[in-house]
């Protein structure tokens, strides 16, 4: 048992590192407990690639401007209003100063990626991706004297009245305890515990893929909820996207995501379309497709595109299935050939004038008389060869989490837990009631990680 640590930070991703660095810069002694082995440190953050950032005028790699109100409006669209406006606006406003802070802590940025992302004005892209960001933060944390323990499996936080009295964890084959002055929980959601996911979703969850880290099993979250720490969010709500059906069960990451949906039709196993593929620009709608696929038979969908659309999006790590005819493509994807051909023919007939087709913005090129309609980018699928991908639900992180206030502090029904803060995905449900906005998870983690680190250090000091 050790009692010489001011602050224990549980987790090893972006939010945890932001908290640890901030607390160390405030003069506190900090210990990070990261469940993963060192090569897999960083949680879901190592799979990220950008940070959504408010800015008044050009800012770093960002062009033009992106106001607080426009940012919040974008968030309202994807969450259908299910958000805490005070916390959301806090994250949005603070994001502008975070970009400079990130650079000061070793993060480098690059011009935005092109294609369906269309994010040059709203999102700052990390040079080297999330893994580079994570490595930079670990270097900085170590230079600040932060102690980092890998393969440190936290098993219990002892809540006594309104304080966390000790932290129990397994490390190097031994049961250990720390008695810190303050604790920051930044250990993500519960998505890697597929039994918990199945209890929330039912049997369909058995077919889900977990695109993020296999180490976010919700152990600390469950432990605190069992002790009466206040929760927020719906266990069935999550950041879930449509990913390549050939992706691994865990840790496939962002390279398994498919960005071709706006230029395709998407059918279920029966060869039937079920949703508007062109509803909005991809960064505002890609995260709904995981849930849409989850609602289809066997939790699987199929993308169909033709030759003229193949170069309009960033490819998956897996090559598409290719065929010279729709019937051949259907056979290769185990779809009913006649039904797929009929579905494509019906779609093609509903397409009108495509002269205003524009792949990176809403173009209004829509179908007519078709249900469901395709409201943008509706061009006939008629130029061979034809290409297809299978789609499965890829869960990134769950939204059931710890409820926090504007200081990132946790509470029970009796009031605040005096020395407990939360940041990142483990409290993102405080802001994300449903849906997702590209790059916003990194915004939440960075903003509330810094707040949690600052407040924990203030308490410890």
Automatic annotation (TrEMBL):
<dbReference type="InterPro" id="IPR012831">
    <property type="entry name" value="CobZ"/>
</dbReference>
<dbReference type="InterPro" id="IPR027477">
    <property type="entry name" value="Succ_DH/fumarate_Rdtase_cat_sf"/>
</dbReference>
<dbReference type="Pfam" id="PF00890">
    <property type="entry name" value="FAD_binding_2"/>
</dbReference>
<dbReference type="InterPro" id="IPR036188">
    <property type="entry name" value="FAD/NAD-bd_sf"/>
</dbReference>
<dbReference type="InterPro" id="IPR050315">
    <property type="entry name" value="FAD-oxidoreductase_2"/>
</dbReference>
<feature type="domain" description="FAD-dependent oxidoreductase 2 FAD-binding">
    <location>
        <begin position="6"/>
        <end position="433"/>
    </location>
</feature>
<keyword id="KW-0274">FAD</keyword>
<dbReference type="InterPro" id="IPR003953">
    <property type="entry name" value="FAD-dep_OxRdtase_2_FAD-bd"/>
</dbReference>
<keyword id="KW-0285">Flavoprotein</keyword>
<keyword id="KW-0560">Oxidoreductase</keyword>
<protein>
    <submittedName>
        <fullName>FAD-dependent tricarballylate dehydrogenase TcuA</fullName>
    </submittedName>
</protein>
């Amino acid at each position: 048992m050790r009692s010489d640590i001011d602050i224990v930070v549980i987790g090893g991703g972006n939010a945890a590192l932001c908290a640890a660095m901030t607390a160390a810069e405030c003069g506190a002694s900090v210990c990070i407990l990261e469940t993963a082995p060192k090569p897999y440190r960083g949680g879901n953050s190592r799979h990220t690639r950008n940070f959504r950032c408010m800015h008044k005028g050009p800012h770093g790699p960002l062009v033009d401007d992106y106001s607080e109100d426009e940012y919040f409006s974008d968030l309202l669209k994807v969450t259908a209003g299910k958000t805490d406006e005070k916390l959301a606006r806090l994250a949005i406003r603070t994001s502008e100063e975070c970009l400079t802070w990130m650079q000061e802590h070793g993060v480098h940025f690059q011009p935005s990626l092109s294609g369906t992302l269309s994010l040059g004005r709203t999102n700052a892209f990390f040079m080297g991706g999330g893994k580079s960001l994570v490595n930079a933060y670990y270097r900085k944390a170590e230079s600040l004297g932060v102690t980092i323990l890998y393969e440190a499996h936290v098993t219990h936080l002892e809540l006594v009245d309104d304080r966390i009295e000790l932290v129990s964890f397994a490390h190097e084959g031994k049961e250990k305890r720390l008695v810190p002055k303050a604790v920051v929980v930044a250990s993500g959601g519960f998505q890697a515990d597929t039994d918990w996911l199945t209890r929330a979703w039912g049997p369909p969850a058995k077919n889900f893929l977990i695109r993020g880290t296999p180490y976010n099993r919700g152990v600390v979250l469950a432990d605190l909820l069992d002790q009466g720490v206040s929760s927020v969010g719906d266990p069935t709500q999550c950041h879930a996207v449509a990913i390549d059906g050939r992706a691994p069960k865990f840790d496939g990451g962002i390279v398994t995501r498919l960005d071709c949906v706006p230029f395709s039709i998407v059918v279920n196993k029966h060869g039937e379309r079920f949703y508007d593929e062109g509803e909005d620009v991809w960064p505002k709608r890609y995260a709904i497709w995981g849930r849409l696929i989850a609602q289809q038979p066997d939790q699987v969908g199929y993308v169909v595109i033709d030759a003229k659309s193949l170069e309009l999006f960033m490819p998956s790590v897996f090559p598409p299935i290719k065929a010279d005819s729709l019937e051949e493509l259907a056979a290769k994807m185990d779809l009913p050939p006649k039904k797929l051909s009929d579905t494509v023919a019906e779609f093609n007939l509903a397409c009108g004038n495509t002269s205003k087709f524009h792949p990176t913005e809403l173009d209004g090129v829509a179908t007519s008389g078709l249900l469901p309609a395709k409201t943008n980018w509706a061009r006939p699928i008629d130029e061979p060869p034809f290409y297809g991908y299978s789609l499965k639900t890829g869960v990134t992180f769950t939204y059931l989490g710890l409820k926090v206030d504007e200081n990132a502090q946790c509470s029970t029904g009796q009031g605040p837990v005096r020395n407990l803060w939360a940041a990142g995905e483990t409290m993102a449900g405080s802001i994300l009631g449903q849906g997702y906005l590209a790059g916003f998870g990194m915004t939440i983690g960075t903003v509330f990680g810094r707040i949690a680190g600052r407040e924990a250090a203030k308490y410890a000091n």
